Amino acid sequence: MSVTYRPDKPNETEELKKEVETVKAAGESTAALLSLSFKAQIVADRAAGTNAIADEMILASTDIVDYPEYQDNHEYKTKGEIIRCDGLYYEIVAPHTSNAAAYPVQTTFAYYRLVELEHAGTLDDPIPYPETAGIVVNVVEGLYYSYKGALYLAKADMPNCVYPPDTAGLWQWEKV
Fold first, then answer.
1. Under 8 Å between Cβ of 79 and 49
2. Mean pLDDT of the chain
3. What secondary structure, in 3-state letters, does the chain show?
4. Residue 8 pLDDT more than 70?
5. Torsional sign, CA 52, 57, 59, 62
6. Tens digit of each residue's pLDDT (9 = 90 or more) over 135-156
7. Which among 43, 121, 125, 133 is least surrounded, fewest beta carbons within 10 Å?
8. Model-level pTM greater than 0.85?
9. Cα angle at 78 between 117 and 133, to 5 degrees?
10. 35-70: per-residue pLDDT in tens?
């Protein structure tokens, strides 16, 4: 910026305001181009099957990249497109037209993948167990899971598990 604010010369304040607006507009244009570029890189990454752009990077970008809100009865054609729904971010994994039965939730994994940080399965970083009934989860013995505000230890491997940790009489879960 070449204009300096001088209280003793108020007419130059207007010049400063104009220059600030010009810089802001340039910054917004640059941010919009970077946003489009990052979205295109995600799509290209998924098309190539490299998955080099991790969920952590996508979630970190949400402050500056404007991902579109989910739309009902909308044709989603692009694998790798990221959308928002109910405060969460989802990746389109298969082309489809959204509807009442095909909207982003944990049960529509044929169309959407929840973009989330990976969890270690430790006491300090338990894996969230989905609270929606009927979700298939590959539970691993020795890892910790959080469910409805409580912490549970998996006492056995349970591939394709549909029994939440608070299921009565299930010895495979131990409440911690």
1. no
2. 84
3. CCCCCCCCCCHHHHHHHHHHHHHHHHHHHHHHHHHHHHHHHHHHHHHHCCCCCCHHHHHHHCCCCCCCECCCCCEECCCCCEEEECCEEEEECCCEECECCECCCCCCCCCEEECCCCCCCCCCCCEECCCCCCCCEEECCCCEEEECCEEEEECCCEEEECCCCCCCCCCCEEEC
4. no
5. negative
6. 778 899 999 999 999 999 999 9
7. 133
8. no
9. 50
10. 889 999 999 998 888 888 888 899 889 888 989 999
Q: Report residue 128: phi and psi, to 5°.
A: -70, 125
- The residue among 98, 59, 55, 106 whose CA lies nearest residue 77 is 98
- C-alpha distance from residue 27 to each of 5, 20, 21, 23, 147 (Å): 21, 10, 10, 6, 43
- The identity of residue 57, as a single letter, is M
Which phi and psi angles does 151 have, rounded to 5°?
-115, 135
